[in-house]
Amino acid sequence: MIGVSMIFLDSAYPVLSCVLAYAAFAKLGRLGQFAGQVSAYRLLPARLSAPVAVLVVGAELGAAGLLLPPSSRAGGAVLAAIRFGAFLVAQAGAVARGLRIDCGCFGGEATAVGPVSVVRTFLLLGLALAAVAGGGVAFQPVQLLIAPLLAVLVGLVPELVGLVRASGAVAR
Fold first, then answer.
1. Which residues touch 90 (CB under 8 Å, ≥6 apart)?
2. Which residues, in sequence order, are CB contacts of 20 under 8 Å at separation 6+?
3. C-beta of residue 76 within 8 angstroms of C-beta of residue 66
4. Domain count, the chain
5. Ranges of the chain with pLDDT below 70
6. Which residues have CB under 8 Å from 142's CB, separation 6+?
7. Sign of CA dihedral 65, 67, 68, 71
8. Which of 5, 20, 102, 153 could form a disulfide with 60 if both were Cys (CB 3.0 to 4.6 A apart)?
9. 92-128, pLDDT tens digit by residue?
10. Which domain covers residue 21, as residue numbers?
């Protein structure tokens, strides 16, 4: 019998795969714009922004694909953890330096780097680390319930942080 904790850990795979695939496909049609967003973080020489943008999209697609079959999930989870870890460091650096930039997370939607994007990335990193810890067990039907709950958690918690932060700013 598979433990409840393993089912929760293994439910992270489909969530991560969907998030990474969505992020990658949203950027594919606007690689030039995404390269500009990479450049805005001011972590690299400008000439490296376009190659890094392509590398990020390739890593997202690669991780999304690797997370699907049980035989490659561990590799996909490690790649996803590295990707989210690097992105979290970049976002935290942008916040610490007071940069007001678009996070470049998904497609054309403009989301400023700040508490909402940092919390979302932190939660996605947590899911990726959970997937690394997961056993890669065969699909269990209960994951059809757990995976959407994890996705909602990743989507709603950062928005709640934004609302709390906004209400605190209004109250001051």
1. 41, 43
2. 60, 61, 63, 64, 67, 80, 83
3. yes
4. 1
5. 1-7, 107-110, 135-139, 156, 168-172
6. 7
7. positive
8. 20
9. 999 999 999 998 887 666 688 988 889 989 999 998 9
10. 4-171
Quickly tell me which residue has 């690669």 as its tokens.
62
Q: How many CA atoms lie within 13 A of 85 on its CB side?
A: 8
Both tokens of residue 11? 């439910």
Report the amino acid identity of residue 15.
V
Six-digit token string for 152? 């909602």
What string of DSSP letters covers the chain?
---HHHHHHHTHHHHHHHHHHHHHHHHHTTHHHHHHHHHHT--S-GGGHHHHHHHHHHHHHHHHHHTSSGGGHHHHHHHHHHHHHHHHHHHHHHHHTT---B---STT---BSSHHHHHHHHHHHHHHHHHHHS--PPP-TTHHHHHHHHHHHHHHHHHHHHHHHHHHHHH-
pLDDT at 172: 47
Rounded-to-integer distance, Cα 51 and Cα 131, Å: 28
37 CB-side CA count, 13 A: 26
